[in-house]
Amino acid sequence: MKKAVDGLVLRVSPAGDNDRLLSVLTADEGRIFMTAKGARSARSKVASMCRLFTYANFEYYEKNERRWTSGGSVNDSFFGLNSDLEGFSLASYIAQIAEEITGEGVDGGEVLRMTLNSLYCIEKRLKPYWQIKAVYELFAVSVSGMAPDLSACCRCRKQSEGYWLDVMNGRLVCEACMEKQTGGLPVAETDRFSTRNILLPLDASAAASAKYILEAPVERAFAFSLTDEASIENLSRAAETYLVNHLERSFEALEFYKSLKEEI
User: Fold this and answer.
1) What is the dihedral sign for C-alpha 222, 225, 230, 231?
2) Is the pLDDT reported for residue 131 higher than 70?
């Protein structure tokens, strides 16, 4: 019996002599795997659907507890991502995050929408890359149930013009409370034993932007602006550091993206 599902290709791997194994993000079935028989052949009728970032309607059948693609149609290829190496590497990082935070048999609708929106923003250059990256990173920790409490200082419960983000405990500490703790000495971003205590500066504007991202619906997640370079740096660093440490893994595409930024 043939079935059909709309999905976004997050990863493509060779399988057998002439097949491809696809990791596909769907709304109703979460992240699933499909085998595209003969997809590595130039004459394959499904080859166009088996490319990274392709959003397509996949027709498939199940045999021997595996899904096999039999046809379908492309909804969007995001072909424009291929013209910009920096944008392509950022899209690859986002795809790797999406694969990490989703699983089979769970609702993937929200992650799929945010991933498609992010790829579209990259392809059309609708937002700065730093903003797209930070939004997706904070969205990922939020949808994974690991969002920090950014409502106020965790100790005095007051608003402040400057905070420290306690990454591993998911909370803010205002500068006044931190000064009391350290006795006015400089704050070390990690403790002297290099354990899991990570403190990052987060000014009021960056904290407000991060809070907005965590609380905004998918369709409004990019609807904020941040122009101060220090605030942008604080938000970007905090989002990446928080995600990587709470997922407890690194991403090859992230390292490549950062290497490109260093060369610019």
Assistant:
1) negative
2) yes
The dihedral region occupied by 183, where left means phi > 0, alpha psi between -120 and 50, and beta the remainder, is left
**CA 26 – CA 235 distance, rounded (Å):** 30
Token representation of residue 175: 């500068």
Sign of CA dihedral 73, 78, 80, 86: negative
Phi, psi of 72 (to 5 degrees): 140, -160
Q: What is the mean pLDDT of the chain?
A: 92
Q: How many other β-carbons are positioned within 10 Å of the β-carbon of residue 55?
A: 21
CA distance 234 to 37: 47
> Using an 8 Å Cβ cutoff, are 140 and 243 in contact?
yes
Q: Are strands 66-76 and 55-63 parallel, antiparallel or unpaired?
A: antiparallel
Contact 202, 163 (CB under 8 A): yes
Q: Which of 58-72, 93-107, 120-134 shows the lowest mean pLDDT across its residues?
A: 58-72
- Predicted local distance difference test score (pLDDT) of residue 46: 87
- Of 6, 145, 25, 22, the C-alpha closest to 94 is 25
Joined together, the tokens standing for residue 4 give 């059909």
**Which residues make beta-bridge pairs with 174?**
163
Q: How far apart are CA 237 and CA 232, in angstroms?
A: 8
Beta-sheet strands, E only, within 17-168 = 19-26, 30-36, 55-63, 66-76, 149-153, 162-166
Tokens of 218: 């998918």
